[in-house]
Amino acid sequence: MPQWKASGYVIRQYATDHDPLHVHVYRDRRLLAKVIIPGGTFMFLAAKSHRGRILEALRQCKLIP
Asked: How many Cα neighbours within 13 Å face the side chain of 50?
């Protein structure tokens, strides 16, 4: 299970998860989003206020362009 940390978010990719390829984004052990990679499309977003910060964290980890 690959895991990255950026900007206070924990980003995990599960090897046995369903399609499409995506990551789970957590903060303080709470699931905030599921993001399709490499496109950066949100499958699930708990709070819209985190959208920009999550995308920036994914860019820092080089998961999206």
From this structure: 20
Element (H, E) at 56: helix 51-60
| 62 token code pair | 């080089």
Q: Which residues of 20-43 are buried (b: 16+ CB within 10 A; e: fewer)?
A: eebbbbebeeeebbbbebeeeebe
pLDDT of residue 5: 95
- Report the predicted TM-score, pTM, of the whole model to 2 decimal places: 0.89
Is the torsion defined by CA of 52, 7, 24, 31 positive or negative? negative
Provide the 8-state DSSP code for 21.
P
